[in-house]
Each structure stands twice: as structure tokens, then as C-alpha cells.
Amino acid sequence: MSGWGAILALALVLASQVAMAQKRNAKAKPPRVVVLDFEGDRRGALRTQVEAALKKTKQVELVPLKRYTAAAGKAGVRGAEMRSSEGVASVAPGLKVDAVVTANATGRVLVVRMLGARGQELWTKDVKLQKGRMSASDARRLAAGLATTAVSPPPVVEPPPAEPATPPAEPTEPATRPPESAPPPVATAPSTPPPEATPAPAQTPPPEGTPTKPAEPPEAVATPKPSEPLVAPTPIDDESHTSTSAIDPYATRAELEAQDRHRYPPLFRLFLGGTTTWRMYCARPGVSSCAAFDSRPEEQQVGDTVDFESGVPYLGLVGQLELMPLGRMENKFLRGLGLGVGYVRGYSETRVKVTTETGETPTRTVVATDTMLMASLLYRYYFNMGTESTPRLGFAGLKGGMLGRAFDVDDEARAPLTGSHRLHPSVGLEFSVPLRRWLRIEGGGQFFLNPQAGQSLTEDKGALELEVRELGEQVSSAGWSAELGVAGDFWGPLGYSARFRYTNVKDTFTGRGSKFGWEQGGVAQENHADILWGLTVSY
């Protein structure tokens, strides 16, 4: 019974020790690791693979690259120096980083190095590349090796001791540590390996013939010791750790390509959808605004006036295309150059009422078409509001080009109303702020450069001149537009967009017009309120 009791007690002691060790491991914080930019890594694809694979292991805490770069800049470490042992030793301790991962992609091989907080090399590994990327299995094994080395790093050993370079310090050490017997010289022998630095202490003991012989074995033992630590931190076998540690399956090639695609602006974006438009128009003689004429007493409201508005908001179709041919360039200042074109076509039922000296005409409903053409050059500066692994690109940009809008009334309606045709340059600003992958706030504004009426590439010149001659001899115009909306991606390259746009144009006429009361010209104002909604396809 006493033997079985001793065995049971021993088992309990061992179980308690294992439990205590597990508690200590559970309380221990994971090591902090930062993955630096890799040399020869185009677009950061390999670095993204390594960082994502390390995150999958759930064994280390990844430090953002931006934080390391900022700390390096404050320490005066820049460029390739950040990846050197000296640079790591000057930056990592301040950030409490335990390990730094660097790599160099040469041809079809990626040479990976892991450095400790003091700049010492902890682990190296060569990984084969296939079309500039690692296979999923190689990425898992590499992450397992890096994570295991970070969790259980090899012992820190100072490679070449710097003390022998200062001979004056060595004679003082034996004086401060008086030997009492033969063993102390054995302990001091490894600390002073060079024989030149200690000639005098070695000559004092010769009177005793026997002690000199045991002094040789310590030297023989001391010589392999400094060389052993250099071989001790051998690379850890990746295969053993991948087979025993539980790691989630690595991202597929499609997922990696999606991450790479979101890191850069899309090469093209197609928007197809519909429009909902409200249109208002007014013309008044001898004043600078329609409101100034309407505020006069009735006896002073002399002259022909025109008013029309959409009885109900009318619908149309819209198509827009944005091309960014330099979107995959590494130069962030050139990748934002692009081209945008658009076409809008709407149909409306418009209520028209004309007031003359003989009275008001009855309100008529006529069918009209609203056509809009856009072509502009784009320049956008893109910025990342997400993370390195899940980027969300926003931009602020400029655009300038030509804008045309034509409102044509059905000729068979016999309504006393001419159309409106404009073709003019425009310049403006635009922005996009991503809040989520599925939600962006987008908007902008444009200023129209002399958007006067009676300008078109397709209409008859006589009909275009009539738009001006009815109200005056000459016309000067000014206008602007502003828009705001939301957009986002909800599945792969597919997304949505919805915007509200308000457009205001004012025509000031001078000289005598053909309508009654327009001897001194007058003013015409045209406003559009558009809602553009639909789907987007981006790549």
C-alpha cells in the first residue's frame, strides 16, 4: 500500500505542475511581431500573404507597419536601414516588438529572416515562389515556423564578446576576484579566451607543477563554448509544426487577388441605372431675377412671361464609364489620371403656361426629352482609410471637360415654348470617403464656364438662334451643380450608387427681343433636381 500511495502522490504532483504550467502559458501575452516591406516584392503581394498567414495562426500579435515606420522616422532610421540589424535594434525595443520579419524576393526564391528585438537573427527560411507568389501550403508552413520561433525564441547569445578589445580592463578582473584555490582559474578561463591578454597570471602558478596540467582542459572546454551558441539557434522544422499545430486553412488565390485588387483603384467602373428629374423654368422681361418681377404690383408686371414645370418627376436612363488606365502603377501620383464619359436620356410630360398682353394661355401638357452628355478628364489622389490587409480606398480629385444638356419639346405639340440647348466647358471637384466596404460617401460640385443657351452640335442654327432672339440680342450665362450620395460594393465587382444632383443656370439677356415687353432684355432661370440610382461594375 505504501508503494501505491507514493505512486499516487507522484502523479498528483506531476498533474499540478502541468496545470500550473498551462496557467502560466495562458496568462502569457503573445509575442509582438511586425512584418516589414520585402525587397523585390511588387505591390506587396508576398508581404500580404505572410501577414495574413501569421494572423491565421492566432499565436502572435501583429504590429502595424505604419507604427514601426513612424517610430523609425523619429529614431532617424530610414530606407533599407530599417531592415538591418542595427536599425531593428534601435526601433524594436521602443515599440516593445519581440520579432521583426524581413525578406528578399530574388527570382523564384523568397529568403525570409526573423530578427529579435536586439537585431540578432532568430530564424531564416528559403521559400519557393510560383508566379511571384507562395503556394498555400508553403505559406502555412512559413507562418508556423515564424510563429513558433516568436513564441519560443532561441537563447540570446552575444556573438563576439567585445571585452577582449580593452586589455586594461582584464588585469583588474583577477585583482577584484582573488582566487582561493585551483577551481577559480577554470571559471575565469572562458571569460578571457585570448592568451595574450593574461600572460602574467598564467606564469605565477608554474611553481606548482601539478595545477598547470588541469588548466589545459578548461581551455579545451572553453573553445567550443563560444562556437556552440552560434550553431545552437538552428531553424525549427516547419513540417513538424504544421502537422501538430492547428492552423485554419489559408486564403485562396481568389481571395488574395481580391485583396490586391482593392489595394489599387479600379481600372474601370461602369454605372448603369435610372434618373428621376424635376425641371423648372421661368423667363421675365426687364429684371435680373424671376423673383424680382413677381414681387412687383400687378399693374407693373408688363411683358410676356414663360413658366413651366414638370407635372410629375420624369424618369430616364443613365450610363457612365470611368477609365483609370494607370491605376495599377506604383506611383500614387500618376495612378489617379483617368477619363470619364456619361449619357443621360429622360422623357417628361411638361405643363406649359405663357402669359401675354391678351391674357394667359391655357396650361398644356407637352412631351419633351431631356438629353445630357458628359466627357471629362479626371485626376484623383487616392488614400487608404482601412488596413494593409483590408484596404478601403478613398479619393479627392479634380475634373474638367465638356458638358451638354438639351431640352427638346415635341414639335407637334404646338406649344409656345422653345427648347433649351447648352454646350459648355466645366471644371469641378469630387470626393469619396469609404466608411465600410459597402458604404462610401461621395459627392462633388462643378462650375459651368459660360453655359449660354443656343449652343449645340446637332441642332439647326436657325432654331438655336431663336432661343436667344425671342428674349434679346445677346445672352450671358452662369451656372453650377452640386451632388451628394452614397455608394458601395456588396458582392465581388458589383456595387450600387445613388446620388442627388442640383443644377442651376441663369441667362441674362440684353437688347431687344421679339417677345412683347422684352425691349431691354430680361432674365431666364433653369433648375434641375436629379436623382441618379443604379448598379456599378468595377474591376
Automatic annotation (TrEMBL):
Residues 152-217 have a biased composition (Pro residues). The keyword Signal applies. Residues 1-21 form the signal peptide. Keywords: Signal. This is Outer membrane protein beta-barrel domain-containing protein. It comes from the Bacteria. Residues 148-245 are annotated as: Disordered.
